[in-house]
Amino acid sequence: MTHPYIPNAEPGVRAEMLAAIGAASVEELYAAIPADLRLDRPLDLPEPLVSEHELVAHMRGLLGRNTDTTEALSFLGHGCYPHHVPAVCDEINGRGEFLTAYAGEPYEDHGRFQALFEYVSMMAELLEMDVVNVPTYDGYQAAGTAIRMAVRYTGRSKVLISGAVAADKMSKLHDFLDHDVELVVAPVGPGGEIGDVRIDETFAAIYLETPNVYGVVETRGRELAELAHAAGALLVVSTDPISLGVLAPPAAYGADIACGDIQSLGMHQAHGGGHAGYIATRDEERLVAEFPSRLFGLAPTEVPGEYGFGDVFYDRTSFAHREEGKEWVGTAAALWGITAGVYLALMGPEGMRELGETILARTRYAMERLAAAGARVLHPDAVHFREFAIEVPSADGLLAALREHGIFGGVRLDDRTLLVCVTERHSRDDIDRLAAAVREGLSVSGTIEGAGTPAAGETA
Amino acid sequence: MTHPYIPNAEPGVRAEMLAAIGAASVEELYAAIPADLRLDRPLDLPEPLVSEHELVAHMRGLLGRNTDTTEALSFLGHGCYPHHVPAVCDEINGRGEFLTAYAGEPYEDHGRFQALFEYVSMMAELLEMDVVNVPTYDGYQAAGTAIRMAVRYTGRSKVLISGAVAADKMSKLHDFLDHDVELVVAPVGPGGEIGDVRIDETFAAIYLETPNVYGVVETRGRELAELAHAAGALLVVSTDPISLGVLAPPAAYGADIACGDIQSLGMHQAHGGGHAGYIATRDEERLVAEFPSRLFGLAPTEVPGEYGFGDVFYDRTSFAHREEGKEWVGTAAALWGITAGVYLALMGPEGMRELGETILARTRYAMERLAAAGARVLHPDAVHFREFAIEVPSADGLLAALREHGIFGGVRLDDRTLLVCVTERHSRDDIDRLAAAVREGLSVSGTIEGAGTPAAGETA
Amino acid sequence: WDEPIIFEQSRPGRRGIAVPAPGVPAVELPDTVRRAEPPRLPEMSQLHVLRHYVRLSQENLGVDQAIAVGQGTCTMKYSPKVNDRFVTDPKVAELHPLQPDDTVQGVLEIYWRLERMLAEISGMHRVSLQPASGSAAIYANIAMIRAYHASRGEGERRDQVITTMFSHPSNAACAKTAGYEVITLMPDENGYPDIEALRAAVGPRTAALMITNPEDTGIFNPRIAEFVALVHEAGGLACYDQANANGLLGVTRAADAGFDLCHFNLHKTFSTPHACGGPAAGASGVSEALAPFLPGPTVEFDGSRYHLDADRPLSVGKMRPFLGVTPNVVRAYAWIMALGAAGLREVAETAVLNNNYLMHKVLQIKGASAPWGRNRLEQVRYSWQELSEETGVHSEEIGVRAADFGVHYWTSHHPYVVPEPFTLEPTESYSKEDLDEYAAILEHVADEARRDPGLVKGAPYNQTIHRIDPSSLDDPGRWSPTWRAYTRKHLS
Amino acid sequence: WDEPIIFEQSRPGRRGIAVPAPGVPAVELPDTVRRAEPPRLPEMSQLHVLRHYVRLSQENLGVDQAIAVGQGTCTMKYSPKVNDRFVTDPKVAELHPLQPDDTVQGVLEIYWRLERMLAEISGMHRVSLQPASGSAAIYANIAMIRAYHASRGEGERRDQVITTMFSHPSNAACAKTAGYEVITLMPDENGYPDIEALRAAVGPRTAALMITNPEDTGIFNPRIAEFVALVHEAGGLACYDQANANGLLGVTRAADAGFDLCHFNLHKTFSTPHACGGPAAGASGVSEALAPFLPGPTVEFDGSRYHLDADRPLSVGKMRPFLGVTPNVVRAYAWIMALGAAGLREVAETAVLNNNYLMHKVLQIKGASAPWGRNRLEQVRYSWQELSEETGVHSEEIGVRAADFGVHYWTSHHPYVVPEPFTLEPTESYSKEDLDEYAAILEHVADEARRDPGLVKGAPYNQTIHRIDPSSLDDPGRWSPTWRAYTRKHLS
């Protein structure tokens, strides 16, 4: 049988094509590959499931072994967030035209260029910055590149980095930067914000996250910006754009580079498959020169008033100059950029504001309820957005107890600390249900008094 | 808040529009409706769930109370069949362009016309008939109309109708026909096929189904065609097109009108939401004149070689002549026609043949296994396609026992009879699992010997 | 795209999908039933089937793509994408209609709740969600009317149904199919159905009045209660075709005017997608007196669980297989839940405002008119008569030319009582900017017609194909309703 | 569609979606963190947002619409629709990446099984599915190379990476980013990377050779094992960029030529969709010696359950958040399962046959050539040099004109070592008829270029927009990378 995916595997057409090119067999076409490099046996792979139904049955069997977050009540966050995904987002990114296009020219792929231009433009409004990249892989990469941009911009090689960063992200940053950038980690203050910060003129940047790994909203942005600028360094701020309907964007308090992950803006959790990274700056040529990503810009056409698009300052890139470009550029996460654009267009300014208010309020409510249930809520006086940490006698014990109630209670940061995530998807009832289960789970061992600031680890 | 579905509910734009038309309020525009007809209170409806997330949560809660046939192992058929739906079928009928278009002209909706023309054309090849309608609602309506076509064509008002028809379908046919057509029901023979048939020159048609309600493939089609034709009547045959990769189409044994349901061809069961009806005839003007449905045909355009489309013989329809048209025409089930076209194009002749062979073989296998498990299989010597009936001491009792195993065992035809459906979705393991559960379920009461032919009822 | 007919893309041996092998012994078929020749279906790879249909899909104008205000009477509105998600979920898509009631409680509850919502919206006693479409609901209503009169021994005598010219043709056609003689009221000089004609028609032979209001012209008949009363006095029933209900939600109800039966089109007023012409869904609402005749089964609630009741001796029985077009029932329910009472009222008011605003714009176009004044609810049947007399360009031609600019309009059902008609219905889904753009396109084409009638008559220029020669479509010797017929007649 | 920029469609007060109200007491934010001005996002109804993006979507050529053989090196193949269904199912889409292992056994098993499949296909010992793309996999490989040499005390000394001009720029660029000096081998007179240049370059400073084969020209270097051996002799590692693996599946393996590391692009060879440029997915395969350095965590199987192992002290750590791009891992797994060993071999053979057939057709076009002869596997970098010299029309211009006929091609990465390049890769997904049509379009445009060069240079004529003036894109005073920048510079 001719495989449904391979039209020219049909023997008749194959013979016809071989005849046309004057080859006796396909084997001839492989003449360039030396015999000693040839595999002399079939690959050892499972028997195929060529019929679509059998493939579906097989996959359904495998995937049916997962318990998803519509089945369990999940309070897991820590970099991947359960926000509501509007159906229109799925509709648009599911359309074959976007899903299967790639890298055409601004003419035949005009729609892709426009959609991505609109995405960066909406992010620019949210961030109050004029330049935003076509997405890179994720917030980790965005942070690494944003730091490298500051390093290149200043010509310095030390960076002060907030300690309130996820351990996995720290791992990525070390791998990406250590060979030529010295990362100095700033301690976390007792209130959950970045602690005492000192830099000098050997520093390229201060790197801050807000809300940080504990969900704490950093309030000293302006002070840090002034500190950095006084030393001739940049302030790089990583922030989740979903907070910016209510929280001031980094540019408002003087940040030079903003970066982060856009998974919150219309992407499913997808077991970590919904990530994409943004980087934004003001429109300063020297800073723009440091972007490795593509930047799409408006360009006029022959027809007055018509908008075309193209690459801004292409010469920066590795596509233009290989290793002489800035870092590298390649396929990253464009579809999620388009999707985030759809999300922001649906939400508008009011939607973003209301969403922020709902999340702030429900986060605070959950903190109060869990405190009342006997958990020790860390950094209770800080402003929290979407996440907060609790300290309990045994993180594993409590998580196991919550599992009995069909609840994924939070991400384990260390033996005694859990990170709890609350979004607009968690109703008041959901939070009450969590609190009741926590109360029950803790009743075995009671509450604990006094605990230090935990390390920012994760379970994976 | 302006509702997301109603852009001009925004107060500013509303005021602007009212000003443009010179009205003080929308109320003015309702002046034509007398006060005593006006509702003087808000409608009494549930509180709305305007936020999409809350709507999704509500619907998920409701729909989560259903157990679907990917969760249970279902052998339910009886007019709605669990065939594999190729992903490409869902992809195409989910595209907004097809899902939200309606009744444009052959120019701006060229794609819809072509897709439906191709659907009828593929059905024509399967049926070996030259004329096929744009789908009507379902197989019930198709049967009713096909019979009416024969009545109009012959000018007679008696129809001999096979007794091996589902009870619900009989109900529909009686409602639709009784006021001016006399339905004479032919008994079911001991082998499960239509029994003794006698007609005379007052009969407009013989109406036959194959496979019939018991899954029995009727073998006397040619004999019945000759009998009908000898009396100046027509043979109307209802058949599921999914069987026609292996079974002879009605035209091959002399049927004048074919009809049936196309739900099998790429539509989900969807709790009965996937139905559409086809009617087909030879290309004879007098017969074509009796179609109430739209018929789409090829038409040349100004550009040589270019294909356009249009309505064939539009004057037949109620759109053209209201009650002087044939029955009526309106919105029916066009999208399922397009989908069935996608299905047939994917399958091709070989796919249809292989599918038919798989179903025939697995049906026979299931009959043997259930017989071995202690059920009395009815009409064991007939050729069965996809369905067969079994007799057991208690239909309800066995169904309940199977439910304990997560199995929907079949459709209850009467107290002692179940109709079992087997398609390509049922693997050998699935059938073995059913057989084992039946054996266990029957072990309480043992097998039974000797039983008559059951009535063709249904559970709903 | 210049996309060939699918048969032209076939190459023997190719496959679009594979089928499970039997895995059990094969069955040999007797010759009497075995297919002799394989069907000549296309043979194509999966990508090629997909690509073909994706291209065809792009050659359509749906609500998701275009300013679809031109399909008057059809209530082209936004079908929320989220509602599509509910019905493609296996919890709907993979349900068998004959599953035990306790495994479909969610679906049954939705039927039950939607029935009560529509009863509240219409004021009727009960509602059947079984009909497959608006016309099927009309037929169901007629079947109930017939059963009602028969139950009273008047079945034979009452053999006439009265309808109006501006009610959908299916009112007349379904009545005729059900065996009734049809009497059609024409509009009076004000565009209302002629009440004197009704007085003349009504009598002991009257089974029912089947009437739309507002009619397809958009005109609301203020004497509707009088019409109903006249029919009632004669012992007939009054049946309300609510295809045009979009401007009336929460404003006036079928029961308020005394109707015995009514129907809604879920795919119009209640937003389920039009799907190129179905699957649709209808809802038949009836008064308490008619309730015993409703199609079966009905969904009942005993306080703890939902179940089907098929034991209804007076029921007209089955209108279609199983319970109803469940996916559309689910969508309509979700749509109402997203709006609530205030939202529905806002839908109605906005639809009426949009229509009056668009009318204001269209009537500023030279050559366009709306017979019978400006009293319109959610749609208007306009006329290009003036423009046509001036330029010789017909409404159909203007419509084809307008489609070059990405919009469609519908003329009207036959016969064209309003000459050179076009019927617009700008539902609540469209923005003021859409309406302005739409009117500007019509104005542009009207200008073209005056400047250069040949330009308009030569359209389309900017669409998939060029002007069609329809002559073969009514010629039995040449018509080609399938590729099979075409190849036989034209290619062999 | 002449679709405005989305900001131009905004009207204050409109909404595309509603958000749940808090339902609990509000939180007052301190001034230091409260946003002062609302962001100037568009305000539109839901239908209008949808319609805007649906229209934009239609203004693209993807695999589902077009004969996408022109994006050479990118392996544009059919992404089966059924695989998309798996990943939009909540059982993938609604999984959190930090759920307990026992609640994601299905996903972990797929990771585990796909790793073993790719290990078999490449001959490598283990495979990491964490990298987010091909370039990210290259970077991961470089990170492992660096860690490997560092673990042997040679990290400082080995500071050079050798690559070739016809390997993807990311090989050079990632190496540079990781701190390496990059040496690029140019092609010799036969189009192979120059082995003499390698001999000259390799030495004690060599950390690794990063090489593609066949290179982006489609030419397979038959001395590849010799290249690897030379590097090994110098103590360096050999890393195989398998972006061009589509013609090699089941034919030859990375391990067979002695490579220490390799990577695949799941969105190329293994069919996950290109998605306008990602999300993609990469797979890094390594020999046993390199396995301890793989990114973490890895998926392990203890005979009864799958679990994550993060306790790997030599690991280079995290390349991205969480485990990998799971949806693409699921799709790639399903694709291989639908094909099996024989199917993969058929993919490779057909890709090579298609390429050679298309090359046969293209080289019949006057003015087209393929430098360095006909030895090609699954793609060819062609040249319009002759045509360009004759007509003055450049390859970019021919490409734009070809798009008027619904197809795209890609020239090549910079610099244009092959003059006036265009790169075609007709994967196994395309039919002979597609290839004939594609070649016919190129031939038609080449004829046009000779007949009327201005016609070709003036393209596009048949696309959404007209010829772009790119001059502002490199001018800091005028460039407009966002609407915000544009309105500031050009509209205020």
From TrEMBL, chains A, B:
<protein>
    <submittedName>
        <fullName>Glycine dehydrogenase subunit 1</fullName>
        <ecNumber>1.4.4.2</ecNumber>
    </submittedName>
</protein>
<dbReference type="InterPro" id="IPR015421">
    <property type="entry name" value="PyrdxlP-dep_Trfase_major"/>
</dbReference>
<dbReference type="InterPro" id="IPR049315">
    <property type="entry name" value="GDC-P_N"/>
</dbReference>
<dbReference type="InterPro" id="IPR015422">
    <property type="entry name" value="PyrdxlP-dep_Trfase_small"/>
</dbReference>
<dbReference type="GO" id="GO:0004375">
    <property type="term" value="F:glycine dehydrogenase (decarboxylating) activity"/>
</dbReference>
<feature type="domain" description="Glycine cleavage system P-protein N-terminal">
    <location>
        <begin position="5"/>
        <end position="435"/>
    </location>
</feature>
<dbReference type="GO" id="GO:0009116">
    <property type="term" value="P:nucleoside metabolic process"/>
</dbReference>
<dbReference type="InterPro" id="IPR015424">
    <property type="entry name" value="PyrdxlP-dep_Trfase"/>
</dbReference>
<dbReference type="Pfam" id="PF02347">
    <property type="entry name" value="GDC-P"/>
</dbReference>
<keyword id="KW-0560">Oxidoreductase</keyword>
<dbReference type="InterPro" id="IPR023010">
    <property type="entry name" value="GcvPA"/>
</dbReference>
From TrEMBL, chains C, D:
<dbReference type="GO" id="GO:0019464">
    <property type="term" value="P:glycine decarboxylation via glycine cleavage system"/>
</dbReference>
<feature type="domain" description="Aminotransferase class V">
    <location>
        <begin position="155"/>
        <end position="270"/>
    </location>
</feature>
<feature type="domain" description="Glycine dehydrogenase C-terminal">
    <location>
        <begin position="348"/>
        <end position="450"/>
    </location>
</feature>
<comment type="function">
    <text>The glycine cleavage system catalyzes the degradation of glycine. The P protein binds the alpha-amino group of glycine through its pyridoxal phosphate cofactor; CO(2) is released and the remaining methylamine moiety is then transferred to the lipoamide cofactor of the H protein.</text>
</comment>
<dbReference type="GO" id="GO:0005829">
    <property type="term" value="C:cytosol"/>
</dbReference>
<dbReference type="InterPro" id="IPR015424">
    <property type="entry name" value="PyrdxlP-dep_Trfase"/>
</dbReference>
<dbReference type="GO" id="GO:0005960">
    <property type="term" value="C:glycine cleavage complex"/>
</dbReference>
<keyword id="KW-0663">Pyridoxal phosphate</keyword>
<dbReference type="GO" id="GO:0016594">
    <property type="term" value="F:glycine binding"/>
</dbReference>
<dbReference type="InterPro" id="IPR020581">
    <property type="entry name" value="GDC_P"/>
</dbReference>
<dbReference type="GO" id="GO:0030170">
    <property type="term" value="F:pyridoxal phosphate binding"/>
</dbReference>
<dbReference type="InterPro" id="IPR015421">
    <property type="entry name" value="PyrdxlP-dep_Trfase_major"/>
</dbReference>
<dbReference type="InterPro" id="IPR000192">
    <property type="entry name" value="Aminotrans_V_dom"/>
</dbReference>
<dbReference type="GO" id="GO:0004375">
    <property type="term" value="F:glycine dehydrogenase (decarboxylating) activity"/>
</dbReference>
<dbReference type="InterPro" id="IPR049316">
    <property type="entry name" value="GDC-P_C"/>
</dbReference>
<dbReference type="Pfam" id="PF21478">
    <property type="entry name" value="GcvP2_C"/>
</dbReference>
<protein>
    <recommendedName>
        <fullName>glycine dehydrogenase (aminomethyl-transferring)</fullName>
        <ecNumber>1.4.4.2</ecNumber>
    </recommendedName>
</protein>
<keyword id="KW-0560">Oxidoreductase</keyword>
<dbReference type="InterPro" id="IPR015422">
    <property type="entry name" value="PyrdxlP-dep_Trfase_small"/>
</dbReference>
<dbReference type="Pfam" id="PF00266">
    <property type="entry name" value="Aminotran_5"/>
</dbReference>
